[in-house]
Write a structure and sequence with these properties.
This is Glutamate dehydrogenase. This protein is α/β, with parallel strands linked by helices. Helix content is 47%, strand content 15%. The structure holds NADPH dihydro-nicotinamide-adenine-dinucleotide phosphate and 2-oxoglutaric acid (AKG).
Length: 447
C-alpha cells in the first residue's frame, strides 16, 4: 500500500534526521506501509504527535569501551544502548557484539523490538544495544575483560525496572554471566532481573536458550496448520548455526522435518540425511570452530565455501543469521525450487524485494517480529521468575512459550483479516503491535 501524504512527509523527515541509517529507514518504512489501513480507519492515531514519537527513540547512549587483550595491548570499541519505547514496560532487548554494529543497526533492532515485544502481551518495552567488538578468535579472558569494560558504562543505564538487556549475535550465556558479574560488583546488588539469558545458577530460566529457535518452529507449525499442512516429512534449510538456528534445527527434526542445510559467515553445510544438532553443538559451542569442520565429523555432509544456502531445494526456509541476508534472487530461487513457507528466525533477514516475491507467490511468510518473539517472551518469563525467586520446570516454561507463540500467530492472522489482508502476517504483526503500543502511549499522556 502506498503511503498517504502525511506519512510520506513523516518518513522523509525521519530519513533526513537519521542520515546513513539505511536499516533503520527500512524497518520504519515497512511499519509505516503496513499500518496505513489502521491510520485510515482511525485518524486519531495521528493525534498528539503519536507517529513522530513512535519513530524517535526515547534515549540513545553511545560510549567508549576500553579493554586490554592477552598481550596487554589496549583496544577501543564503541558501545551502544538505545531505549526506544518504554510505553509497555522497561526497555527490553538484546546486545549484539559484532564488527558491523553501528547506531543505525541498533536503532533498527530496537524499533523492531517495539512491535515484537507488544505482540508477546508480557509488559515489556523495547531496547537494543551492543558494540562493534569482534569476538571471533578472542580468548575467554579477553571476552571477560571486554564485557566488564562494556558494563562499566552500561550499568548507569539499566536495571530490572528500567532497561533489561539480554543476548543477540555474539552474546550468549557466557557473555551475559560476565556482564551480570560486573553489574553486581559495581552496584553491590544481586538484582537478577537486570539481565536475562543468564545461566541457571545465577538466575537463568529453563528454556531461554532454546526459546527463540523453538518459538520459530511453534509459529511455523501454527502457520502450516492454517493451510492444512504440517512439518512432518518436510525439508528445511536454515541460515546461521548459532543460538537460534541450533535450537530451531532440534525442534524441526523433532516434529518430523529434515534440515538439510545451515550456514555461517564462511559458507554452508549440506547433508540430505539431516544436520546433526549434537555435532553442530560440539563444533560451534565447545570447539568454537567454523562449519568447514563439520564434514570431518559427518562424512556424508559437504561444506560449500563462500555461499549462502538459498539455492538448496526445500519446502521451508528459516533465515536465522542476520539482516538482509536473503535477497530477491534468493527468494526467486527458493520459490522455483518448491518452497511453501518462510519463518524469519533473524531480525529482518529478508529484503523488502524478497518479501514481495514470497507474498506474490502466496508462500506462507512469517516476519521476524512475530516468528522470533519466543526469545524475548521467555526473557520476560525469566524476569517473572527472578521477581519471585522461583524456578519453573522445563515443561511448564516450554508450554508457556508454545502458548505465547500460538497467541501471537492468532493475533497476526485475525488482525490481518480484520484490516482486509487475510493471510498477510506482516500487516497483521505490524498493526497488532502498533495498536497495542499506541493505546499505551495515549494513556501515558504527552511524554
Ligand atoms: N538469540 C536470540 O534470542 C534472538 C536472536 N534473534 C536474531 O537471530 C539472529 C541470530 O542470532 P543468534 O543465533 O542469537 O546469534 P549467534 O551469534 O548465536 O549466531 C549467529 C549466526 O549467524 C551467522 N552470522 C552472523 N552475522 C553474519 C553475517 N553478516 N553473514 C553471515 N552469517 C552471519 C554467524 O556465523 P559466524 O559465527 O560465522 O559469524 C552464526 O552462525 C540475529 O539476527 C538476531 O538478532 C532474534 C530474536 C532473539
Ligand atoms: O531476550 C531478549 O530480551 C532479547 C531478544 C532479542 O534481542 C530479540 O528479540 O531480538
Amino acid at each position: 500500500m502506498t503511503l498517504d501524504a502525511a506519512t510520506t512527509a513523516l518518513y522523509r523527515d525521519i530519513v533526513r534526521r537519521n542520515p546513513a541509517e539505511a536499516e533503520f529507514h527500512q524497518a520504519v518504512a515497512e511499519v509505516l506501509h503496513s499500518i496505513q489501513p489502521a491510520l485510515q480507519r482511525d485518524p486519531s492515531l495521528r493525534d498528539a504527535g503519536l507517529m513522530e514519537r513512535l519513530c524517535e527513540p526515547e534515549r540513545q547512549s553511545m560510549f567508549r569501551v576500553v579493554w586490554t587483550d592477552d598481550n596487554g595491548a589496549a583496544h577501543v570499541n564503541r558501545g551502544f544502548r538505545v531505549g526506544f519505547s518504554s510505553a509497555l514496560g522497561p526497555y527490553k532487548g538484546g546486545l549484539r557484539f559484532h564488527p558491523t554494529v553501528t547506531l543505525g543497526i541498533v536503532k533498527f533492532l530496537a524499533f523492531e523490538q517495539i512491535f515484537k515485544n507488544a505482540l508477546t502481551g508480557l509488559g515489556i518495552g523495547a531496547g537494543k544495544g551492543g558494540a562493534d567488538f569482534d569476538p571471533s578468535g578472542r580468548s575467554d579472558g579477553e571476552i571477560m575483560r571486554f564485557c566488564q569494560a562494556y558494563m562499566t558504562e552500561l550499568h548507569r543505564h539499566i536495571g530490572a525496572q528500567t532497561d533489561v538487556p539480554a543476548g543477540d549475535i555474539g552474546v550468549g550465556s557466557r557473555e551475559i554471566g560476565y556482564l551480570f558479574g560486573q553489574y553486581k560488583r559495581i552496584t553491590n546488588r544481586f538484582e537478577a532481573g537486570t539481565l536475562t539469558g543468564k545461566d541457571l545458577p545465577i538466575g537463568g530460566s529453563l528454556v531461554r536458550p532454546e526459546a527463540t529457535g523453538y518459538g520459530v518452529v511453534y509459529f511455523l507449525e501454527a502457520m502450516l496448520a492454517q493451510r492444512g499442512q504440517s512439518l512432518e516429512g518436510k525439508t528445511a534449510v536454515l541460515s546461521g548455526c548459532g543460538n537460534v538456528s541450533q535450537h530451531a534445527i532440534v525442534k524441526l527434526q523433532e516434529m518430523g522435518a529434515t534440515v538439510v542445510a545451515c550456514s555461517d559467515s564462511s559458507g554452508y553445510i549440506y547433508d540430505p540425511a539431516g544436520i546433526q544438532p549434537d555435532v553442530l553443538n560440539e563444533i560451534r559451542n565447545v570447539r568454537r570452530r567454523k562449519l568447514d569442520a563439520y564434514p570431518e565429523a559427518v562424512p556424508t555432509a559437504k561444506f560449500v565455501a563462500g555461499k549462502t544456502p538459498w539455492n538448496v531445494a526445500c519446502d521451508i526456509a528459516v533465515p536465522s543469521a542476520t539482516q538482509n541476508e536473503l535477497g530477491e534472487a534468493d527468494a526467486i530461487a527458493l520459490v522455483k525450487n518448491g518452497l511453501i513457507a518462510v519463518a524469519e528466525g533473524a531480525n529482518m533477514p529478508c529484503t523488502p524485494e524478497a518479501v514481495n516475491v514470497f507474498q506474490e507467490a502466496e508462500i506462507a511468510f512469517a516476519p521476524g517480529k512475530a516468528a522470533n518473539a519466543g526469545g524475548v517472551a521467555t526473557s520476560a518469563l525469566e524476569m517473572q521468575q527472578n521477581a519471585s525467586r522461583a524456578q519453573w520446570s522445563f515443561p511448564e516454561t516450554d508450554q508457556k512459550l508454545a502458548e505465547t507463540m500460538r497467541c501471537i500467530h492468532d493475533i497476526c492472522l485475525t488482525t490481518a483479516a480484520d484490516y482486509g489482508k487475510p493471510g498477510d502476517y506482516v500487516t497483521g504483526a505490524n498493526i497488532a503491535g502498533f495498536l497495542k503500543v499506541s493505546s499505551a502511549m495515549n494513556m501515558l499522556g504527552l511524554i
